[in-house]
Amino acid sequence: MIINGVQIDDTFAEAFPMRATGLIVTADSPQWANQAAVTMTGFATSVIGCGCEAGIDCQLAPAQTPDGRTGVRVLLFSTSTGELQKQLQGRVGQCVLTSPGSACYAGLDGTERLKLGDALRYFGDGWQVSKRFGGKHYWRIPVMDGEFLCEATTGLTKEAVGGGNLLILGKSSRASLVAAEAAVRAIGRVGDAITPFPGGIARSGSKIGSKYKSVRASTNDAYCPTLTGAVKTALAPDIASVLEIVIDGLTPSAVAAAMRAGLEAILKLGAKRGVVRISAGNYGGKLGPHHFRLKELVR
Amino acid sequence: MKPLVLTLLRRPEQRLDVSPLVPHRLIGKTAAEIAAIELQTTHVPVTAGDIFRLQMGDAQKIRIENACDRLDGIGLAMTSGEIVVEGSVGIEAGRLMGGGRLTIIGDAGPWAASAMKGGTIEITGNAGDRLGGPRTGETAGMRGGIVVVRGNAGERAGDRMRRGMILVEGGASRYAGCRTIAGTLVVRRTVGPLPGYLMRRGTIVLGGATDAFSPTFVDCGVHDLLALQLMARYVKPVSPRLATLLRRPWRRLAGDMAVLGKGEILTVP
After folding, report:
1. What is the CATH classification number for the domain harbouring B263?
2. Percentage of chain A lying above the pLDDT 70 cut
3. What is the number of other CB atoms lying within 10 angstroms of the CB of residue B179?
4. Which candidate in B142, B181, B226 is best for mutational testing of the A interface (most A CBs within 10 A)?
5. Are residues B195 and B82 in the same domain?
6. How do strand A6-8 and strand A2-3 relate by DSSP bridges?
7. Rounded to a whole number, what is the distance in Å from the CA of A133 to chain B's nearest CA?
8. Do A129 and B233 touch (CB under 8 A)?
């Protein structure tokens, strides 16, 4: 299939079930809310090396937050409930609790819960105050700039999906980067989905395994333009750069919507902006139960 | 659907326990069955039909008209539905209430909302002594839910409160929030001496002056607390006045240091 001069491979992104949670982080200004959120979602690009994948889902206006201040919604994904709880506690404790003027609330509903303030309250050393309003439970933890207000728990979903992806193949590194940036901007407008890599983009896509025993994942040599003559390549000679966008979503439909938004943004740029092909990564369909076919998404 | 209306025919000669007349105990009953419900008073047997004129309707919503301060135990342990009372009521209105809504268009006697666990009580007039407090032998008072008093509260409002929220738009008499275990008491106007006496945890917000604080409360300075902004949002639907009051900096007095000292009284700086 070719749209606007861009070839869309007849393939699919293979994605996996994940556990996920959401948070709302607020602060006295949008800058500080984002600072706390960016800090807590740092080093959270891949569950393989970071324990979780995390990112900012959306910016929230004062009317959308529990305390009437500006905020952001953050999503965290991991492969097990235990690891997600560990990452949540560590990241909120080290990055949000410490951030000036911050407060933290549940960003996901659900009967299954993860500890948020319930895990952090002990920092109050006995001076923490429990408050319950309207069926919600909060902890007030005294800190040096006043109080850190934190909801006791947040929701957990087991319906989340990780590993939706797009591969953008361009004539130059500049062309693929411009297209990837446009796709990330479009995906950013889709709710319940994040792109956890730096700026939403990964340039070092990986394959499973390595020639080295201790390395679990290694460079995706089939998509490395500098190896086209040396390995069984997936690239035509006119492709000089490949970038990947990885997408995690709270539901399969959120991932599909995000992939569709990204695809449409890239196709809108078209071949005249240097994009040659769009593909997706998979493992032959044997590992992940969620298959997002590119051609179905652009129909 | 029309409510079930119970109109008091005359003022009872003695105190009258009307606690059986709650939605969850009347649903599915016929008019004759409701009229036959025995109500406790003196040694003279009395039924609901002797005291009230019944107008059948949906028992999830009960309206008691022409009420008076001899009707005790209105809404006792109610779990759901709604009771609206036109007139004042006696003791223990809404005691042990677990859910639903009780509206008293008038005054309530002592121990209103006593040991309440959930739901909402609104008293448009004044509340008597020991609002939300425990009865003799009980270790805790109110344990959940929300109480709004548009007028004043008597002595020891919120005594031994463990959870929940009491909102008083008027003033309160002495020992407001005494022996509080946790929970929140907000009083908009003047309170009597020694608010928060022997409180362990919990929050008492005082919008007006008081005659005397216990010397066992310590000044922790003036603060703009985010938790109160959050509380204001929650309170606004039931009391816009108190929501406005809460959105301001407060002087925080920690105490009562005579006991655990993890509570707080917030006063106007």
Report:
1. 2.160.20.60
2. 100
3. 22
4. B226
5. yes
6. antiparallel
7. 7
8. no
pTM attached to this predicted model? 0.92
Nearest residue in A to B229, CA atom: A67
Query: Model confidence over B102-155: pLDDT tens digits?
Result: 999 999 999 999 999 999 999 999 999 999 999 999 999 999 999 999 999 999
ipTM over 0.85: yes
Closest CA to B74 of B53, B56, B88: B88
Structure tokens at A168: 């953008």
Q: How many CA atoms lie within 13 Å of B206's alpha carbon, on the beta-carbon side?
A: 30
Q: Do A146 and B182 touch (CB under 8 A)?
A: no
Cis check: omega of the bond before B224, within 30 degrees of 0 = no
**Shared domain check, A289 and A179:** yes
Mean pLDDT score of chain A: 96
Domain end position, chosen among B45, B64, B83: B64
Confidence of residue B1 (pLDDT cuts 50, 70, 90): confident
**The pLDDT of residue A299 is above 80:** no
Domain that holds residue B220: 73-267
Distance in angstroms (rounded) separating the CA atoms of residues B28 and B20: 14
Which of A96, A128, A133 to probe the B interface (max B CBs under 10 A)? A133
Q: What is the mean pLDDT of residues B38-65?
A: 94
Token pair in block for residue B210: 């008081």
The shortest CB-CB distance from B182 to any of A66, A130, A140 is to A130
Q: Are residues B202 and B235 in the same domain?
A: yes
Please check whether residue B117 touches A, CB under 8 A: no
B222 contacts chain A (CB < 8 A) = no
Domain, as residue range, for A114 = 19-157
pLDDT digits (tens, 9 = 90+) for A68-82: 999 999 999 999 999
